[in-house]
Amino acid sequence: MKLNYWKFVAIVGASLGLLSLPAAAQQPAPPAAPQAVRINPAPTEQPAAVPAQPPAPALGVLADNVIAWDAGAKQVTLKAGETEAHFTFNLTNISSGEVTMTGVSASCGCTSAQLSSPLPLKLVPGATSQVVATLAMPAGMPARSSSVTVTSDKGNKTLILSAFAAQQQTSATPAAPASPAAPKAN
User: Fold this and answer.
1) Extents of the domains making up the chain
2) For residues 16 and 13, what is the distance between their CA atoms, to the nearest angstrom?
3) How much is the pTM?
4) In whole angstroms, how far apart are CA 172 and each of 46, 142, 175, 178?
5) Block mean pLDDT (10 aa), the chain, length 186
6) From CA 54, how far away is CA 182, in angstroms rounded?
7) Which of 94, 88, 92 is closest to 113 using CA atoms?
8) How many CA atoms are closer than 13 Å to the CA of 65, on its beta-carbon side?
9) What is the domain class of 67-164 according to CATH?
């Protein structure tokens, strides 16, 4: 059976509740031809039971009592002609156990980021590191924000980057103030 692309899209959309189809298009497909079914006899030996393991917990936000950051958000005002904003976030393992930093990712292609040491980075209690990020700022853009997510075996931390263009100076110079009139001699 050959299925038209748009009919396929309509059927899928209708099944997801996104579209309503005319009654003719909603009719069920004819039943498939019966196929031979082969039944295997029950095995004589049972396989060894595998102990059930609970699923790994989903890691959420990195707790404040694990890693201390110098800031969760930073902003930079660029000088005239600059097209990149540079950020450095300092971090310290303040927990009683080792924390393994497993990744750094940027929210968009305008941002690059990395840890100051290769990954995976194991931080013993008291150890420090840095996340270094660069945010591209095209000429003429007044402001741009982005984020960097740092992942670890204890959770994730999102850092916010904001860059602002330098204020443009007008080319007109203000008029010099008028000098006060000299008193007339009588």
Assistant:
1) 67-164
2) 5
3) 0.60
4) 90, 21, 9, 18
5) 51 50 49 55 50 55 95 95 96 97 95 94 97 94 95 96 81 52 54
6) 93
7) 88
8) 2
9) mainly beta
